[in-house]
Amino acid sequence: MLKKHLIPCTVILSLLVMAKVFAYTLPEVKTSQKNNNPTPIVTPAEEPAFTIAQLEFAEESLPMGDKKITGKMKRVLASYGYESLQTNRLHRKAQEWFPIIEPILAAYGIPNDFKYMPLVESGLQGGTSPKGAAGYWQFMPGTARMYGLKVNSKVDERKNLRKSTIAAAKYIKELYGIFDSWTLVAAAYNVGDGHMRKQINRQNQDNYFKMKLNRETGGYVYKLISMKEILENPERNGYKNQKALLAYTGNNTSTAE
Fold first, then answer.
1. 17, 147, 166, 238: least surrounded by Cβ within 10 Å?
2. Which tens digit of pLDDT belongs to each residue from 181-210?
3. Threshold 0.90, pTM exceeds
């Protein structure tokens, strides 16, 4: 009779020991003290550290692994910091100009990044260049007339934002048909398509970043990338006063022609 009770007791005791050994306790969930309902407190993931590899123009990235190119990009970007360029002034220009420029570029199938070109061309200094280029897109008189702008002693449509942007869009689209690369298009806009084609053939190279060009053209796309970076990410480029920032929202209107 004792054996009949002893065997079940042994089995039950063994099961209790095993349950103790293999018991799993769920991790404690921190809860908010504001109410009685347990609300998990989620720690936000840290933002990835910024690197030069993130920079690009019209979805064309800098070649990585080239210390010379990376160093040049860092130097140009550093020169475009808030202290040297007064980023708030550039944001005001962007707020005024971009609502007019963006839809025109889109209508012609041109990447949105080209909206930064007028800021590099005329936003920093403005006026007429020593060579005679003028207006938002810094057209030479002859080129302006080729793309439908009136330039004479009475009228200069290079200074009309809407009309000059349409002319620039036509020119940029034509350049892309020649070079099939947006970085080369930007460089050709700066130096002229004839000169750019000559350099491509002479150097047997069609990667803008690897070409040897004059100082202005060789740094032109780097300037466009830097302008894009400081306007899109002002705080990580030296702009501390976020409340005073006139950030472009896409819903603004402008009195510019």
1. 17
2. 999 999 999 999 999 999 999 999 999 999
3. no
For 27-48, what is each residue's pLDDT tens digit? 444 444 445 555 554 444 555 6
Structural domain boundaries in the chain: 75-244
Element (H, E) at 60: strand 60-61
φ, ψ (nearest 5 deg) of residue 86: 55, 70
Pick from 115, 117, 116, 119: nearest CA to 89: 119
Contact assessment for residue 216 and residue 58, using Cβ atoms and an 8 Å cutoff: no
Q: How far apart are CA 168 and CA 162, in angstroms?
A: 10
CB atoms within 10 A of CB 225: 26
Query: How many Cβ atoms sit within 10 Å of the Cβ of residue 190?
Result: 23
Candidates 58, 79, 66, 59; CA nearest to 209 is 66
For the segment(s) 75-244, the CATH number from 2.60.120.10, 2.60.40.10, 3.90.330.10, 1.10.530.10 is: 1.10.530.10
Cα-to-chain-centroid distance, residue 40:
36
The residue among 66, 126, 47, 82 whose CA lies nearest residue 226 is 82
Contact 231, 90 (CB under 8 A): yes
